[in-house]
Amino acid sequence: MSTPAAPASAVKVRFAPSPTGYLHIGGARTALFNWMYAKAQGGKFVLRVEDTDLERSKPEFEKEIMDSMAWLGLSWDELYKQSERFEIYREYAEKLITEGKAVRDGTAVILKVDKSRDIKFDDLIRGLIVFNTDEIKDQVLMKSDGSPAYSFSCVVDDALMGITHVIRGEDHISNTPKQILMYEAMGFKAPKFGHLPLIMGTDGARLSKRFGAVAVSDYRKEGFIPEGLVNYLMLLGWSPGNQEILPLKNACEKFSIKKVNKTAAQFDMEKLKWVNAQYVKLTPTGKLTDLLVPILQEEGLLGEDYDRASLEKAVEMFKSRLNTLRDFVERAGFLFARDFTVPADVRAGHLMKNMKKEFDLLAGRLSGLEVFDLASTEKVFRDVVAELGIASGELVHPVRVALSASAVGPGLFDIMVALGKDRTIARLKAAF
Ligand code: GLU
Predict the structure, then answer these.
(1) Sign of dihedral through CA atoms 59, 60, 63, 64?
(2) pTM (predicted TM-score)
(3) Residues 6 or more apart from 122 whose CB is under 8 A from it?
(4) Is 421 a catalytic residue?
(5) How many angstroms is it from 173 CA to the middle of ligand 1?
(6) Residue 148 DSSP label
(7) Catalytic pick from 115, 209, 249, 353?
(8) Which residue ranges form the domains of the chain, and what is each CATH number?
(9) Helices (H) and strands (E) in the chain, counts
(10) Residue 123 C-alpha to ligand 1 middle, in angstroms?
(11) How does pLDDT run across 319-348, given as a tens digit for each residue?
């Protein structure tokens, strides 16, 4: 045979996506659990692109899957493409024919399955699983178009690549006995199998497009950060104990495939946002700013030459309030808007009472400031309130809305400083 079997000693796992679609949440979770298992055991992680379906496999999906994995930080030790290995599958099919274990059916090759046999395997997650071969039809190994059937190329490769543990989605359980029969026929030792629970949406149905974003790249575009998404994905079917925020490195040290749940995991968007928010807080402001710049530029909120220092200040100010990077666009967008206006519905809700007199007084006093910082703006504000004889709350709220078009957000003086003196005054004057 062209490729000798690798020694099956150290742990070697693989993630084997078919490039017929984007890397979705379920695939990413499978990749992650394999990756963590490899790291936990000091083993190797193989990426195998299962592009045997030449019609449906697309190079752009292959690229997107690899980009998404790299973005998540799931690097691989070895890379294979099944479309480059057709010759190997053909050789093994021929060998089975020569040995009388498979037969030709036209140009296809079929494995004969003996009836009334129990096929057992001890699933790493689900325990003992038994199938009877009465439920299993004869198996196509090579299709009539010369391409291998999924299970056959999968088994040949898992054997030749020395895969010790096959960790994959529960939807593959029924393929496992068929694949065990193929290992047997070829005289290979079968690896251990572990089938991960399904991921459900909050509606209890299987995660699908209907649920919303399922592609990892959508989450990337939505402004999730990879560390946050990875941490959330690891909680889908596994629990690192009482600590939910656990960076990947530490998680690998704790990870045990035997501790993965049998029952379906529920994808909870609110939880994902919460986990991501923790990572946003942990990310140094400089790095967070680097991540935000392209998003802000894409939104047309930031030009090529922008003031880095004031942008960093704004990021610092909002950091503790962001679930995702996109939230910054929404919450801090008012800082960048060129033609700022308070939308009619926000005006109607918060700027009903005409406060032109109070706003003019405040604007006038602020314009006299030499140093426009937190302390000086606050002092001016307090003095104006005292002079007007009103409660500070009566002025804080409308001023905040006039400056930021929102009734909630960072401290009022933070907002003023982030806007700078000129824009603060211009917005106060434009309010009524
Ligand atoms: N290409 C298969 C899939 O994407 C891989 C299944 C397996 O891991 O064996 O579902």
Answers:
(1) negative
(2) 0.90
(3) 128, 129, 192
(4) no
(5) 11
(6) B
(7) 209
(8) 86-196 (3.40.50.620), 344-430 (1.10.10.350)
(9) 18, 12
(10) 17
(11) 999 999 999 999 999 998 888 999 999 999
